[in-house]
Amino acid sequence: MSGGTTGVSGDGGTSAGGASAGGASSAGGSSGAAPTGGASGASGGSAAGGAGSGSGGTTGIAGSSSGGSGASGGAASGGSAGAPSCRPDCGSHKWACWPMPNPASTTLPNRASTSDLGESVHDNVTCLDWQKTEPSGTYTWDQALAYCDGLTLSGHDDWRLPTRVELTSIVDFTQSPAIDRASFPGAPGGFHKTASDWILTIRQAGAGAGRDYAWAFNVSDGIVSNAYSKATASALRCVRGGGAGEAPSAPAVAPPNQYTLAASGEVRDNYTGLVWQQAYSPATMTFAEAGPYCTSLGLNGHTWRLPSVRELATLVDEAQVAPAINRTMFPSTQYGSRSNNWYWASHAARGNAAAAWALNFDDGFTGFNAGASGAWNYWTAAWTRCVR
Asked: Can you tell me whether residue 171 is helix, strand or coil?
């Protein structure tokens, strides 16, 4: 796994090290961080929030998909029964207001599908348009924002730097570099900027005080980091669509009626169409145990499965830390790296069958358990939250 950035915890405590592309533990440990470590965060995370439960049942959200020739990938259909289509404008760029695509090479629902528009690529699942060939240079955060704002491509001048969840939608954990090269020919790996400023940087609180951290993706392996310096020049790929949304340095704002209690113990995301187990496994478990746990769950008579990393990423509330999730709908969610407080995803790391992907709700960073004992990416068991 490649590294190169420092991970930062979301909550209080002293530094416990961190991730090359993830986050540090939220508490405990000694101060200081190795080059692949991280500082701890601060208490004083935002108040429990996110969207509360809304009224109504299964909310289908209408949307349109502009087209183009040369569709590639799997079918855009599939997924949860009654899954909504993408919505042109839900008021947020920092939440998934569309079904989250999964790599076309998998059997997971909402398989990725794109259309080639020449200079750009249209995502038939999210309805976002992407710059097909990214610029060859590297950019600081301010330069990256300015580059995309000034871009005119495919007859449009409303391009922007993508947010964390938007870039998540095209990061393909089954490939290396972790992106679909059929849709994005010659796409390089390495770190890529996002327009998601880290919440403690926005507040200049705790580990964000005096820092310039923002979310970034290492497209070489797909890991997302909450603590990549804005001053460090790296690659970018611009996006357009999705209507109005938050400014890069504004906290994430949950879309209206985001979640509904679909049944006892079940939470429906009315934008992605995913239905989540409200609780999680009663104990941590190995990756080999996680899949069978979900398939045997039987909650309310439904069939459940392990979510993908992309799907888990839709639960992350960028406006909060420790845990970075809607605490009303998902109470008592565990968090904290350098521990077993991760949540399993459905897939092994590419080329490393002994390691598997997971997400940590300390801040929402991802990783796979391939590290040596004591490293940020070392854990022997994790929690499991199922989806359908």
From this structure: strand
Under a CB-based contact definition with an 8 Å cutoff, are residues 24 and 8 in contact?
yes
Measured CA to CA, the distance from residue 380 to residue 358 in angstroms comes to: 12
Tell me the per-residue pLDDT of 37-76, one tens digit each, with 9 for 90 and over. 233 333 333 333 333 333 333 333 333 333 334 445 443 3
Q: What is the pTM of this model?
A: 0.83
Neighbours of 31 (CB within 10 A): 10
Secondary structure (3-state) at 82: coil
Cα separations in angstroms, 328 against 54, 244, 261, 363: 12, 26, 11, 17
CB 226 within 8 A of CB 260: no
State the DSSP H helix or E strand holding residue 226, giving kind and residue range, or none if neither. strand 223-229
CB 7 within 8 A of CB 26: no
302-318 residue pLDDT tens: 999 999 999 999 999 99
271 Cβ partners below 8 Å, 6+ apart? Answer: 61, 84, 87, 90, 95, 96, 97, 98, 255, 258
> What is the per-residue pLDDT across 231-254, written as a single tens digit (0 to 9) for each?
999 999 999 999 999 999 999 999
For 25-48, write each residue's pLDDT tens digit. 333 222 222 222 233 333 333 333
d(Cα 19, Cα 371) in Å, to the nearest integer?
10
Gap between the Cα atoms of 217 and 190, Å rounded? 8
DSSP 282-319: SS-B-HHHHHHHHHT--GGG---BPPPHHHHHTT--TT
Provide the greatest CA pair distance for the chain.
56
Under a CB-based contact definition with an 8 Å cutoff, are residues 161 and 194 in contact?
yes
- pLDDT digit string (tens) for 89-132? 899 999 999 999 999 999 999 999 999 999 999 999 999 999 99
Look at residues 196, 192, 198 and name the one whose alpha carbon lies nearest to residue 221: 192
- Burial class for 181, CB neighbours closer than 10 Å (0-12, 13-18, 19+): exposed
Residues 232, 5: Cα–Cα separation, whole Å? 10
